[in-house]
Amino acid sequence: MSKEFFLYFYRHKPVIILTCLLILGCSLQYLILSGDNINAVKDALSVNSEVLIFQNFAMDTISFLSLIYYIYCSSSSIINDKKNGVLIYSFVKNISTVKVLLNKLIAAYAFVLTSNLFLVLSISVVSLFIYGGDSEMIANAFSLLIMKTYTAVFYVNLAVLFAILVNNYVFVLSILFIVEIAKVGLYSLLKDLFISRFIILNHLDISYFFNLPSTGVDRGYSLLFTLSMYVIYMAIILMLSYFIFDRKRGKLI
Amino acid sequence: MTIEIRSLSKKMNNHVLFDNLNFDLNPGKIYGVLGKNGTGKTTLLKLLSGLEPDENNQTMKLFPDDYSPIGIHIESPKLYPFLSGKKNIRLFTSDLPKSNYDLDFLIEEFQLQNFIDKKVKTYSLGTKQKISLIIAIMMAGKFLLLDEPTNGLDDDSIHVFKSLLLSLSSKHGLIILIATHDKDELIETFDQLFYIRNGSLEKVELSERKVTELNT
């Protein structure tokens, strides 16, 4: 797993990319919340702490862009390996399909977690520098880390599945936009039907369950139910990925 | 350990590539496989290495242990372009229980000292080929499969490569199978030569290889 994890650093230059996203997100939020705007936000959200508002809003801005980056990086770990033919070495060594795939997935999860940790910590330092400290900052940062990683890991799994199927980055990247559009469309179409509670798209944002300034939509589900749906869908995607990867094994080199 | 291949068949797009092949591969021997384009030279290597299933959808597992001591180089060099040659070699061979050759020795033999720490994307085809061959040699504990190994190599490198092959087979008892379209380039290294024709392997008679001449 460690080799796969370090390949992300050689292949995708995360320090440079994430720093750019950080500068962009923080600058944008600083401009948006400048002047009286921050007071308007405080009133609208009934939150007194400026630092917590900045911490959350900056992370929300960056997380959309970082999600695209994570999807690209995780799909690249499959598409790039197929393109370069290097999977041959694992297959010739008799390394099982499940081990090869798990190595890639765990490395992708570790990369997402590490990158989000870097972003949350950096945003917290910037928030501290601009707005001063707050006793809830650390808890808020931890919640942001969990929440954003939870969402990203699902997309990463989906990206790996699509990357096994196709060799096209544009197609894999488009899943984010397809899922986002489907999320809004399906929710408004099926929100009154019982079946809507079993659609994973309604369980990808768990911010409602945390006491954050930028909280998500309350859809009336419990945290346990949301987590159960998440685990079930993740298991289905993983099994599909394994099945397709194993069947295509000889063609992946 | 002699590798015994029995009843190996393979079809591709309703075309019979191999029909009930039976042959033995003995330790310390170098085998050549010749054939026209599309006769299945690369497919034979993929079948033997377990990369592709046979006609009965069975994947060959010549070495049933957890670690398979097969080294392989097929088609083009399989490398990460964004890593250096050395990092590529380390990445793919660091988990091996043991290797017959020391990496630094192979780097020196192939005269890669000035390139080994540069990124693969800056390499010529010949240099990439050398790195890929080093990986295959290091991976090959018992069995080395090579497809057109001399592609892009200059005369000096081909000479070094031949000496390494002879040393690997004679000193380390490796079984080496080389698929090539150019019989003349490696002819003096082969102990046995096969020609793929009409789905079968035909043996071609050879004179004894010139080990002494090459080693000097």
How does this model look, in words?
Chain A is built from nine helices and no strands. In chain A, helix 2 runs antiparallel to helix 4, helix 4 packs across helix 8 and helix 7 packs parallel to helix 9. Chain B is built from seven helices and eight strands. The longest helix of chain B has 18 residues. The C terminus of chain B is likely disordered. Chain B is an alpha/beta fold.
What kind of oligomer do you see? heterodimer
> What form of chain A results from the Cα inertia axes?
globular
The CATH superfamily of chain B appears as: P-loop containing nucleotide triphosphate hydrolases
Please tell me the CATH architecture of chain B by its name.
Answer: 3-Layer(aba) Sandwich
Estimate the helix proportion of chain A, in percent.
Answer: over 70%
Report the uncertain regions of chain A: none
Strand content of chain A: under 5%
Q: Could you say what the CATH topology of chain B is called?
A: Rossmann fold
Give the largest chain-chain interface (CB within 8 Å).
A-B, 16 and 31 residues
Based on CA atoms alone, the radius of gyration of chain A comes out at 20 Å
The number of helical runs of chain A is 9
Largest sheet of chain A, if any? none
Radius of gyration of chain B: 17 Å
Instruction: Give the proportion of residues in helices of chain B.
Output: 25-40%
Principal-axes geometry of chain B comes out as globular
Largest beta-sheet characterization of chain B: 6 strands, mixed
Distance, first to last CA of chain B: 29 Å
**Unreliable segments of chain B (pLDDT under 50, ≥5 consecutive)?**
210-216
**Count of DSSP strands of chain B:** 8
Distance between the termini of chain A: 20 Å
Please give a handful of descriptors for the protein shown:
heterodimer; A: 253 residues; mainly alpha; 75% helix; B: 216 residues; alpha/beta; Rossmann fold; six-stranded mixed β-sheet; two-stranded antiparallel ribbon; 7 helices; globular; disordered C terminus
